[in-house]
Amino acid sequence: MTRKTLLLTMLALSVAIAGCGRSQQGAPRQEDMSGLCPAIQHTGLTKQCAVSGFDSAVHVMIANDDDEVARNVCAEVVNRIAQQAARLPAQWMLQVYSPYRSDKPLATCPLH
User: Fold this and answer.
1) Spatial distance between the Cα atoms of 102 and 96, rounded to a whole number of angstroms
2) Containing domain of residue 87, as a range?
3) Considering its fold, how many domains does the chain have in total?
4) Residue 104's domain is classified under what CATH number?
5) Pick the residue with more confidence: 37 or 34?
6) pTM summary value
C-alpha cells in the first residue's frame, strides 16, 4: 500500500468513525461542517479534505512536502474561510498533510 493510499484510507476512516464512541462537548452542528471542505477546496490551495470529529480536525492534503509551504497554506486557508470557521469551537484545528510524508501533519493551525 502506497503512502498516498494509506493517507486516503486514514482520512476516509476518520470521517467514517467521526463521533463513534465519543461525545464531544461543544461539537459543531452538522450544517457548520457540511460546507467546510467545499470552502477549503474552493481556495485551490489543497487537493483533498476530510473532517474528523474524532480528533476535532480538518485534514487537508497539499502536493508539497515543505513545512514552510504547509504553514503558509494553513494560515492562508484559515484566513480565507474565517467567516465559516468562526462558528466552530476553538479546539478545532486544520492539519496539512503531504502525500510524500503522510505519517504526521506538516502544519497544524487553529480553525477560528
Assistant:
1) 9
2) 3-19+28-110
3) 1
4) 3.30.300
5) 37
6) 0.71
